[in-house]
Design brief:
Blueprint (H helix, E strand, L loop, with lengths): L8 H15 L1 E2 L5 E2 L1 H28 L2 H8 L3 H7 L3 H25 L4 H16 L2 H15 L1 H25 L8 H21 L3 H17 L9
Antiparallel strand pairs: 1-2
């Protein structure tokens, strides 16, 4: 910020401080973000990280908000400023984990050169996500217990169905998809994926179960598209 030559440097400095405190920083788009906004975002991020650790280590039921607050170095009241309940906090953690996974899966699919390769790349990226112990426990083990089956399932659909549908749309546009009802097919594939992940999560040999899951899913998807799979 520039000041006129008639304003002494000491006064210019005193004018600048309140403006910076009150207005904060400018983003590249020109939107004003106050320091309060930045602090709120930092607190929210710290709570999500702390809660994810607690839910992973202790499970939803045994996790206390006192420990979440302590790990995040905030007061318990700060939790209720951002979230209405422990369940609400868990939902936010779940959504954050899902968003990260969806971003990874989407990028993998979009980088592929053809529809079949996109399906394989996206599914392999998904397998990497669900092999992460934190993501697996929070989204697939604790999720149903914390949210109830219906809310947990609908949350998964909200994130995953769109990814599956875009892959199917690409195959349909390429003229290689054998099934016409893409909406129902997306839901069927989501159900198959969910069953496979739960089988992995409950298995005593998750790496073996992962390979079985991958083999069956690729065979299933190969039956849906008219392409020659690489040997």
């Amino acid at each position: 910020m520039q000041y006129s030559q008639g304003v002494p440097r000491s006064q210019a400095s005193s004018f600048a401080r309140p403006v910076a405190d009150e207005v904060g920083t400018m983003t590249e788009m020109g939107t004003v973000r106050t320091r309060r906004d930045e602090y709120a975002e930092a607190t929210n991020a710290a709570l999500l990280e702390s809660a994810a650790s607690c839910f992973f280590e202790h499970g939803f039921v045994a996790t206390s908000l006192d420990e979440v607050a302590q790990r995040a170095r905030v007061t318990k009241g700060a939790i209720y400023h951002h979230f209405t309940s422990k369940r609400d906090l868990f939902m936010a953690v779940l959504e954050h984990q899902q968003a990260i996974s969806v971003g990874t899966v989407t990028a993998a699919g979009e980088s592929a050169l053809d529809a079949w390769s996109a399906m394989v790349a996206a599914f392999d990226a998904f397998l990497e996500s669900v092999s992460n112990p934190v993501y697996q426990r929070l989204c697939w083990i604790e999720g149903p217990a914390a949210l109830g089956f219906t809310d947990w399932w609908e949350t998964g659909e909200r994130f995953e169905i769109d990814v599956i549908r875009r892959l199917l749309d690409r195959a349909h546009q390429a003229g290689v998809l054998e099934v016409a009802d893409l909406d129902m097919l997306a839901h069927v594939l989501f159900g198959a994926v969910a069953a496979g992940v739960l089988s992995m999560a409950r298995s005593e040999n998750p790496n073996v179960e992962r390979e079985r899951f991958r083999t069956v899913m690729l065979d299933l998807m190969a039956g849906l598209v008219r392409v020659e799979r690489p040997t």
